[in-house]
Amino acid sequence: MRVTLPSLILVLFLLAPAATLAENATPSSNLKDRQLKSASVSAKTLERKEKVASREGVIKLQRDKLKSALSARLKTHKDQKKAQIIERVDEMLNTVNTNRTEAMLKHLEKVESILTRVEERVDKAETAGKDGSSARGAIAQAKISIDQARVAALEQGNKDYTVSISSESGVRAEVKVVRDKLGTDLKNTHQIVKAAHDAVRGAIQAVNLLHGEKDGQ
Q1: pLDDT in tens, 162-209
Q2: How far is C-alpha 194 from the chain's CA centre?
Q3: What backbone phi and psi angles, to 5 degrees, belong to 200?
């Protein structure tokens, strides 16, 4: 079949918009995906904050009961000056635990936000035709580490360090036991959170390599 020049021009003219549309589809699609991911992360963050607030309310009720029970026991002590010191130490131990675990949870929120931006860089690199499979693997591992660290921090925050007074003479030893346990528990939880932090750093390095950058940049 003979193809005339005008016919060929007409065919090319009709195909041109379709080709342009195909070229523009991928960036638009990726932008939409990133927007959906961002919305999903925001919704999950809000849900976690609501759960944490609810958990803190329950913990406060439990600790108030334990604190009242401790106060009642301490009122029977002969040395009331020492009893007041014990109450302050008891309050301090639980406050330290609350403050440290809240700081850990805030840090995890921060590194998770960073990881979201890192994932967006992979999206852009893949749009440009680069292989992001290695970086995707590092990001997936970082997400797992963050989830594990968040669970550990929440569980640590749920723990109570109210001193159990069995006898007036053994108060010093019992306070030391509780204090040492708090220190050990916080150290162990911190290690899990640090592992999540390191996993995010590993994901950043993997994405830097994907973009042809040196580690640490």
Answers
A1: 877 666 666 788 889 999 999 999 999 999 999 999 999 999 999 999
A2: 11
A3: -65, -40
Q: Which of 83, 104, 41 lies closest to 168 in space, CA to CA? A: 83
**CA angle, corner 95, sides to 91 and 101, nearest 5?**
150
Q: Are 122 and 132 in contact (CB under 8 A)?
A: yes
Rounded CA-CA distance 167/130 in Å is 69
Pairwise CA distance, residues 215 & 142, whole Å: 17
pLDDT in tens, 27-50: 455 556 655 655 655 566 566 556
Cβ-in-10-Å burial (0-12, 13-18, 19+) of 208 comes to middle
Q: What is the pLDDT of residue 166?
A: 62
Q: pLDDT class for 150, splitting at 50, 70, 90?
A: very high
pLDDT of residue 18: 40
Owner of token pair 């936000």: 113
Q: Give the start-to-end residue ranges of the domains of the chain.
A: 23-210
CA–CA separation, 212 and 123 (whole Å): 15
> How far apart are alpha carbons 73 and 65 in whole angstroms?
13
